[in-house]
Specification:
The complex is a heterotrimer of chains A (153), B (794) and C (261).
Chain A lengths: L2 E7 L3 H8 L2 H7 L3 E6 L4 E10 L2 E15 L3 E9 L5 E12 L6 E12 L1 H5 L1 H29 L1
Chain B lengths: L18 H5 L15 E7 L5 E7 L1 H4 L4 E6 H6 L31 E2 L5 E7 L2 H9 L2 E6 L23 E8 L1 H10 L2 E12 L8 E7 L4 E6 L4 H13 L6 E4 L15 H13 L3 E4 L2 H7 L3 E12 L5 E13 L27 E9 L13 H19 L3 H8 L8 E2 L5 E2 L4 H11 L5 H10 L3 E10 L7 H6 L8 E7 L5 E5 L8 H13 L6 E4 L17 H27 L7 E4 L2 E4 L5 E3 H9 L14 E6 L8 E11 L4 E12 L6 H21 L29 E5 L17 H18 L13 H16 L1
Parallel strand pairs in B: 1-12, 10-11, 14-15, 20-21, 27-28
Antiparallel strand pairs in B: 1-5, 2-4, 2-6, 3-5, 7-15, 8-13, 9-10, 9-12, 13-14, 16-17, 18-26, 19-20, 19-25, 22-23, 23-24, 26-27
Helix pairs in contact in B: 9-18, 14-15, 15-16, 17-18
Chain C lengths: L4 E3 L4 H11 L2 E4 L5 H6 L7 E4 L8 E4 L2 E5 L4 H6 L1 H6 L1 H8 L4 H6 L2 H7 L6 H7 L3 E4 L3 E3 H4 E3 L2 E2 L7 E7 L3 E8 L6 E10 L2 E7 L7 E2 L1 H9 L24 H15 L2
Parallel strand pairs in C: 1-3, 2-3
Antiparallel strand pairs in C: 4-5, 5-10, 6-7, 6-10, 8-9, 11-12, 12-13, 13-14
The chains are: A alpha+beta (153), B alpha+beta (794), C alpha+beta (261).
C-alpha cells in the first residue's frame, strides 16, 4: 500500500524545512492531535484521538524523524498503541525540491502504513482510504498553515 | 399378532431424530452449561506476529474490579504442565525426525502468531476479565515475521528446534522410477497450483468449562470436541500427568467442527489448570474474532506437478513437489494431513505406474494449520484433477475420455498404488458415465452457444476423485508414524423391555449419528428405531472411542456397533434355545423373532431381553444373565469412496462473476444407511468446496496480521451462491467391513473445487485463459478476462 | 462492551437534552454499526440516547416529495406501499441492504448520518435531490456528505426526516461485496425530466459522490449504450482486498449501464 502526493509552495526550501522541524507546526498538522512533546532532537511524544465513523480510539505513541537530510527532507514516522483496538503506524518519506529561482518548493511525500490487532482484523477495507485521508489532512493542513503565514506577511 | 412392524432400517431415508431439538433452539451446547461459582476466563493475545516478550506486567490487572486471578506462561510452567502434542509424525528424507518444538499453554519468552495467548485473566464476569486483560502491559521486541511459507526457509527462525523453519521434509514413492518414467514420456504436463488457506468457521465457536473437585482430586471438562476420549487421553497422560480416571471429558451438543475441534487446544488445558488453581469452575467462550485467529486453519499448499504421458495419452509417471504451511506450532494432525493423507492419494482413480512426491512442511508466524473437511485429500484431488484437465486440453482430448482411458480398470482390484495404498474395490467408469448423463454432457456445446448469445461464457468441468477414509488399520497407522490406535468402540445395552441403549465412541457434531446408528441396530434386531437411543460424547458413559473425523464414523463406529449387535444376537439365540427347548443351531433370527427352524415356535426379541434380566427360566449354569455387549472394531484397510462431480458455470465478462448453474455429483459410497443424510452430507461438502473455489480466502498481510478476521471480509458460501445439486450414486460395497459402507462426510469438499475451477477455465478457454487460482473471485476473473483481451490486442 | 448509560427519550427535544447531559454521548438509531463497535470496545461513549421512542418513523407523500422519518426501518421502507408507488427504486434499495436481521433494525437516518462509504442509502439521498431535515435546519443532499464517515451534521444534531424529490424514473443497482454484502459499488440513477443524477456509493475514498460525466451523457441520451464512451477514472476510488480501484471503476460503469433501463 503506497500513497503519494505533492504540493507546490511559494516559499524557499529553507523556510519549509524549518516548518517541518517546528513542533507547533507539526502539532497543528497532525489530525486530532491532543498532545505533542519533544523528547529529543528526533523524537516527540504524541497522543492522538482518532475517530473513524463510530470508532473512537486514543493512540499513544511517538513521532520520530529519521533519514534527516537538511534541508532536503526526512522520514517522519508516527506510531501509536490504541489499547484494545491494536496499533497503527504511518511513515512518510518527505522530499523538498526547490525551483531554480529558489522562490518556490515542491513538497512531495510517500506514505506507507501498517496496522495491527483489531483494526487490521475488522477494518481492512478502510485501511488504505484512512491512511490516504490522514496523510492528506496532515500535509494539507501543514501546507495551509505555511500559506496562511505567507499571506499574512 | 403377525403384523409386521415397519422397521426404518438400513437404506431408509428416515428424518433425523436429533433435528427437533436443534431446529427449535433446544440444543444444549457447552456455552449453555454453567456451574455455580464459575469464573470467566479471557485470554490476552498477541497482536504482533513474531516477537520476544521482554516483560509482562500484570499488576494493574490483578487489582482490577472482579478479577480473581491473572496467570502467565511462567505460572503454568511452574506447575510443569505440558503443551499440546503432535499425534502423528513422519520421518524426513535425510533420516531425521519431524522437528517438534514445544507449544507452551501460554507464551513463554516469545509470541509466534497474532492470537498467541500470553496471559489468562479470570474474573467474575467475562467483561471484567476482558477489562482486566486491557490493563496488562506487554513489552515486545519485535522480530521479522515469516508469512510467505514458500520462502519461509530464508526467514527469521521461529523455533530454536526448527532450523530453516522446516518441520519436516518427507517423501513417498520411487523417485528414480518416476524420473525415468518422466524422461521417457512423450509429453510432460507441468502445473503449479495453490490450495488456498481456509478458516473452518464452525457455527459454534470453541468453548470450555472446567471444574475441579477437591474431594476426590478430579476434574470435569465440558468442551467443544469431536473426540472427548482423545481429549482426555492427551490432557491426562501428556499434559497434566494425572490418571485418566481423574478427568471426565464431556462434549455435549457441538455446533460443527469440520476438523477444527479434533485437537486439544491450549484454552481447554488452561481452564483445567486454572480451575484447580483458583478452586472455582472456569469457563471460556471464544468470540468469532478469536475463532478466526486461533482455530486451526485448513489447506495452504503450493504444489508443483509433472505428469508424463505416452504416445497414447496414457499416464506413465507423476511427480509432485509440495510446500505447505503448518503455522506457528505443530497441531495434533498437522503433519499427517499433507503427508500420509495427501501423498498416498496421488494415484487418484488412475493407473499410474510411477509416482514420487516430496512434501516440505514449513513453520510461519500464522495460526496452526491442521485437518479441515477432507484434510489432505482435497489438496491431492485438486492438484491431480486440475492436472488431468490441463493435460486433456494440451493433448486435445475430451477431458472425460482422457480420464476414462487412464482409469484403473474394473478388473484390476484390489489395486496396489505406487503410493502405499491398496484400493480394495472400485468401478470408476459407471460414475463418470452417470454424472455425464445427469448433467447432459453431450449437449453441453449447445448450452455454451446459447449462453454466448446472451454474452455469457459457459463452461463445464469434471473432477473424478478418490479418498481414503474410515481411519483405519491401527497397524498401518502405527507403521506410518501415527501415535494412536484407529479402531472404534461400541457398547450395546439391551434394556429389560427390549429397548436398546447404544454407547458409541464416535462423536456427533452434525452428522446425524443418533439416526444412522439407530437404523443399523433397528435393522439388525428387527425392532423399531424409536426403541434405540444413541449415547455419545461423555468419557464417563461411553467406551473409549477415537471420535469423529476423516469420514470414519459409519465405517469404523458403525461397524463396531454392528459387531456388538451380532454378539447380542448370538447370546439371544442361546437364551431362545433354552426357552424354546431347542438346540441353539436350530434357532433362526428373523424380523425380530427367534424361531425354531421348521416350526411355529418363536420368541420375540423383547421376550428374550426380559428373560435375560428376569432369569427365572434361564440357563444360568452356562450363561451370564443380562444382555449387553462391547465391541472394538479395527478395520483391515481404509475404505475408498470415489465418484465424479461435474460443474457447469456461467461467467459474466462484464463483472467477472461466476455463477454455478448446474452440478452433478455421482458418488460411490458403498451401501447407504440413510440416503437422505448422505445427500445432506454431499450437499454440505459441495457447498464448502464451492466456498473454497469461489469465495473463501484467509489472508495474512506481510506483517502477519489476519486481514480476513470477520465476515466483513471472509466470505462464506450462502444459499444463493449454490445451484440445486443433482445427486446420484453407484455402488460397489466396501469389502473391508460387514456393512459394505464407505464414508461420505468429506467427499463433496474433496471433489468439488477442481470441478468448479476446471469449469471456470473451460468457460474462459475461448479467450485463451488457461489457469485460475482459488478463490476465483469476481475481481480475479475479470482481471483474467482483461489480461487475455490485452494479450489478444497486442 | 464497556458498560454505559442508556436513555430512551420520547421526543427529539428530550433527546437533545439527554445528549447534553451525558457529556460524550451517542445517538442510537438502529445500532447496526454502533452496537458492533461498542461490543468490540472500539468506542466508549458516556451514554446512548435511543431515538426509537421519538416518533420519527412516518413515511408519507408530501406534495412533490416523499418524506421518510429518520427512524423508519429498512424493512418499513422496503415494504411501504407509498414508497413502492412513488419511488420504487428506493424500496428496492432498502430491500437489498444487509440481511433480514439488519433490515429489521437498521434505519434510514442512522445509515445517512453514519455515511459509511459502502452504505446504500447515501446514493439515493444524493441522486434523489433529497433534503435532510434536522432538529434545527434543512440541509440539501449536495451539502450533506462531506467525506468518509463525515457529514454536515453538528455533534448534537438529530436527523428527523429526509424528503426525496419524486423522480421521473429511478433505479438502484449494486454489486455487493461477496462477504459483507455492503455495496462494493452501488449506483443510483435518477431522472428528473431532462436532468439526470448519478450517485455512486461503495467506491469513493471520500464516500458517496456524483458522477458528472455520466450525468451529462445520460441527460442528453438516457441509454446504456451512450455510456460506452465514458471513461471512469480510478483515481480516488477505494482499493481493498476485494476490489482494486480499477475493478471498481469498471463496476461503476457496468452498474450504471444496468441501472439505465
Amino acid at each position: 500500500m503506497e500513497i503519494k502526493d505533492s504540493y507546490e509552495l511559494p516559499l524557499p526550501k529553507e523556510r519549509v524545512w524549518a516548518a517541518l522541524n517546528d513542533e507547533e507546526f507539526l502539532k497543528k498538522s497532525i489530525p486530532w492531535c491532543e498532545k505533542l512533546e519533544r523528547r529529543s532532537e528526533t523524537e516527540l511524544a504524541a497522543e492522538v484521538k482518532l475517530k473513524i465513523g463510530p470508532m473512537s480510539t486514543r493512540f499513544i505513541g511517538s513521532i520520530t524523524l529519521s533519514d534527516i537530510d537538511p534541508p532536503n527532507g526526512y522520514t517522519i514516522t508516527g506510531s501509536g498503541k490504541g489499547g484494545i483496538a491494536g496499533a497503527a503506524s504511518g511513515s512518510a518519506r518527505v522530499k523538498l525540491v526547490e525551483t531554480k529561482d529558489t522562490s518556490s518548493t515542491t513538497l512531495s511525500y510517500e506514505v506507507s502504513a501498517q496496522v495491527k490487532g483489531k483494526i487490521a482484523q475488522l477494518g481492512s477495507r478502510l485501511i488504505q482510504s484512512t491512511a490516504k485521508k490522514l496523510s492528506k489532512n496532515f500535509f494539507g493542513s501543514f501546507v495551509q498553515q505555511l500559506e496562511d503565514i505567507n499571506k499574512s506577511k | 399378532m403377525n403384523e409386521v412392524t415397519k422397521i426404518d432400517g438400513i437404506g431408509s431415508s428416515v428424518r433425523r431424530t436429533e433435528d427437533k431439538k436443534f431446529l427449535t433452539g433446544k440444543g444444549k451446547y457447552t456455552d449453555d452449561i454453567n456451574r455455580p461459582g464459575q469464573v470467566q476466563a479471557y485470554f490476552l493475545r498477541s497482536d504482533v506476529a513474531h516477537a520476544k516478550i521482554k516483560k509482562i506486567d500484570v499488576k494493574d490487572a490483578q487489582s482490577a474490579p472482579g478479577v480473581v486471578g491473572v496467570f502467565t506462561g511462567d505460572d503454568i510452567a511452574a506447575d510443569k504442565v505440558g503443551g499440546p502434542i503432535c499425534g502423528w509424525v513422519v520421518p524426513c528424507r535425510d533420516g531425521s525426525a519431524t522437528k517438534e518444538p514445544p507449544h507452551p499453554l501460554l507464551a513463554q519468552g516469545k509470541v509466534r502468531f497474532v492470537g498467541d495467548a500470553i496471559a489468562v485473566v479470570l474474573a467474575e464476569t467475562a467483561e471484567q476479565a476482558k477489562s482486566g486483560a486491557e490493563l496488562i502491559e506487554v513489552d515486545y521486541e519485535e522480530l521479522s515475521p515469516v508469512v510467505d511459507f514458500e520462502n519461509a526457509g530464508e526467514g527469521a527462525q521461529i523455533h530454536d528446534e526448527v532450523p530453516n523453519n522446516c518441520y519436516f521434509d518427507w517423501e513417498l514413492g520411487d523417485e528414480k522410477a518416476t524420473a525415468d518414467a518422466l524422461s521417457s514420456a512423450k509429453k510432460i504436463v507441468k502445473l503449479r497450483v495453490r490450495n488456498n488457506r481456509l478458516v473452518p468457521n464452525a457455527m459454534e465457536p470453541r468453548c470450555a468449562l472446567a471444574e475441579f473437585d477437591n474431594l476426590d482430586d478430579s476434574y470435569t471438562l465440558h468442551t467443544t470436541s469431536q473426540n472427548p476420549h482423545l481429549t482426555r487421553l492427551v490432557l491426562a497422560a501428556f499434559m497434566f500427568a494425572i490418571p485418566e480416571s481423574k478427568l471426565r471429558v464431556i462434549a455435549p451438543d457441538v455446533g460443527g467442527g469440520f476438523g477444527s475441534k479434533i485437537y486439544v487446544y491450549i484454552e481447554e488445558a488452561v481452564c483445567v489448570w486454572a480451575s484447580k488453581k483458583v478452586g472455582r469452575p472456569v469457563k471460556w467462550t471464544a468470540d468469532r474474532t478469536q475463532a478466526f485467529l486461533t482455530d486451526c486453519h485448513g489447506r495452504d499448499h503450493v504444489n508443483d506437478v509433472q505428469l508424463g504421458l505416452d504416445e497414447n495419452n496414457k499416464i506413465v509417471g507423476l511427480r509432485v513437489d509440495t510446500v505447505c504451511n503448518l503455522g506457528a506450532y505443530l497441531s495434533a494432525f498437522s503433519v499427517v494431513v499433507p503427508t500420509y493423507l495427501h501423498g498416498t492419494l496421488l494415484s487418484g482413480q488412475y493407473d499410474i505406474p510411477a509416482i514420487y512426491t516430496n512434501v516440505k512442511g514449513m513453520a510461519t508466524n500464522t495460526v496452526n494449520v491442521d485437518a479441515y473437511r477432507g484434510a489432505g485429500r482435497p489438496e491431492a484431488t485438486y492438484l491431480l484433477e486440475r492436472t488431468m484437465e490441463t493435460a486433456a486440453r494440451e493433448v486435445g482430448m475430451d477431458p472425460a475420455e482422457f480420464r476414462r482411458i487412464n482409469f484403473i480398470p474394473k478388473g484390476a482390484f484390489p489395486y496396489q498404488t505406487q503410493v502405499a495404498l491398496q484400493y480394495d474395490i472400485g468401478d470408476y467408469e459407471p460414475h463418470l458415465d452417470k454424472a455425464m448423463e445427469m448433467i447432459d454432457y453431450s449437449n453441453f456445446e449447445k448450452r455454451r452457444a446459447e449462453a454466448a448469445k446472451r454474452g455469457m461464457y459457459r463452461g463445464i468441468g469434471i473432477s473424478s476423485y478418490i479418498e481414503a477414509c474410515g481411519l483405519a488399520p491401527s497397524a498401518v497407522v502405527g507403521a506410518l508414524g501415527g501415535r494412536v490406535g484407529q479402531w472404534e468402540s461400541a457398547s450395546v445395552r439391551v434394556n429389560p423391555t427390549g429397548t436398546i441403549s447404544v454407547f458409541t465412541g464416535s462423536h456427533s457434531h452434525g452428522q446425524g449419528h443418533a439416526t444412522t446408528f439407530a437404523q443399523i441396530v433397528a435393522d439388525k434386531l428387527g425392532i423399531p428405531m424409536e426403541n434405540v437411543e444413541v449415547v455419545h460424547g461423555d468419557t464417563d458413559k461411553t467406551p473409549f472411542g477415537m471420535g469423529s473425523y476423516g469420514s470414519r464414523s459409519l465405517a469404523s463406529g458403525g461397524s463396531a456397533i454392528s459387531k456388538a449387535v451380532d454378539k447380542i444376537i448370538n447370546k439371544s439365540k442361546k437364551i431362545a434355545a433354552h426357552l424354546l427347548e431347542a438346540s441353539e443351531d436350530d434357532i433362526d433370527f428373523k424380523d425380530g423373532k427367534f424361531v425354531v427352524g421348521g416350526t411355529d415356535k418363536e420368541k420375540a426379541f423383547g421376550e428374550i431381553a426380559l428373560a435375560a434380566y428376569v432369569p427365572h427360566n434361564y440357563p444360568l449354569e452356562t450363561l451370564e444373565p443380562g444382555l449387553e455387549e462391547n465391541a472394538f472394531y479395527d478395520p483391515t484397510n481404509f475404505v475408498y469412496p470415489s465418484g465424479t462431480h461435474i460443474a457447469e458455470v456461467e461467467v459474466d465478462p462484464a463483472t467477472g462473476v461466476v455463477q454455478v448453474v448446474d452440478w452433478a455429483a455421482c458418488d460411490d459410497f458403498g451401501n447407504l444407511v440413510n440416503p437422505m443424510i448422505v445427500e445432506g452430507q454431499v450437499h454440505g461438502g459441495i457447498a464448502q468446496g464451492i466456498g473454497q473455489a469461489l469465495l473463501e480466502d484467509a489472508h495474512y498481510d506481510e506483517n502477519g496480521q489476519l486481514l480476513t478476521a470477520s465476515y466483513m471480509d471472509y466470505c462464506m458460501p450462502r444459499a444463493d451462491d449454490l445451484p440445486s445439486f443433482k445427486v446420484g450414486y453407484t455402488t460397489t460395497p466396501s469389502t473391508v467391513n460387514d456393512l459394505g459402507v464407505k464414508g461420505c462426510g468429506e467427499a463433496g469438499a474433496i471433489a468439488s473445487p477442481p470441478a468448479l475451477i476446471n469449469a471456470v477455465i473451460d468457460a474462459l478457454s475461448p479467450l485463451g485463459v488457461t489457469d485460475m487460482s482459488m478463490p476465483a473471485t469476481p475481481q480475479k476473473v475479470w482481471k483474467a478476462i482483461q489480461d487475455s483481451q490485452s494479450v489478444a490486442a497486442e | 462492551m464497556y458498560s454505559t448509560k442508556y436513555v430512551k427519550p420520547n421526543s427529539t427535544t428530550e433527546a437533545l437534552e439527554a445528549i447534553k447531559s451525558l457529556g460524550d454521548g451517542k445517538f442510537l438509531a438502529g445500532g447496526m454499526t454502533l452496537i458492533p463497535t461498542l461490543k468490540q470496545r472500539l468506542a466508549s461513549p458516556d451514554g446512548l440516547v435511543d431515538l426509537s421512542g421519538c416518533k420519527l418513523d412516518s413515511i408519507a407523500e408530501e406534495g412533490e416529495t416523499l418524506k421518510i422519518g429518520a427512524m423508519a426501518r429498512h424493512v418499513s421502507v422496503a415494504e411501504s406501499a407509498v414508497v413502492k408507488k412513488v419511488i420504487p427504486a428506493l424500496a428496492k434499495l432498502a430491500d437489498g441492504i444487509g440481511d433480514r436481521q439488519v433490515r429489521n433494525r437498521g434505519t434510514i437516518g442512522g445509515s445517512v448520518a453514519n455515511n459509511d462509504p459502502s452504505a446504500c442509502y447515501p446514493s439515493a439521498v444524493l441522486a434523489l435531490k433529497a433534503t435532510i431535515h434536522t432538529n434545527n435546519r434543512s440541509i440539501a443532499a449536495d451539502d450533506f456528505f462531506t467525506g468518509m464517515f463525515e457529514t454536515a451534521l453538528e455533534d448534537d444534531e438529530i436527523i428527523e426526516s429526509i424528503s426525496f424529490s419524486k423522480p421521473t424514473k429511478a433505479n438502484y443497482v449494486k454489486f455487493p461485496n461477496p462477504a459483507s454484502r455492503y455495496a462494493m459499488v452501488g449506483v443510483f440513477v435518477a431522472q428528473f425530466g431532462d436532468e439526470v443524477r448519478v450517485a455512486v456509493t461503495g467506491a469513493g475514498e471520500g464516500g458517496v459522490f456524483r458522477h458528472q460525466e455520466m450525468e451529462s451523457v445520460l441527460s442528453s441520451n438516457f441509454s446504456a449504450d451512450s455510456l460506452s464512451s465514458v471513461n471512469i477514472d480510478s483515481d480516488g476510488l477505494i482499493s481493498d482486498l476485494h476490489a482494486s480501484a480499477e475493478y471498481r471503476a469498471n463496476l461503476i460503469k457496468e452498474m450504471t449501464k444496468r441501472a439505465v433501463v
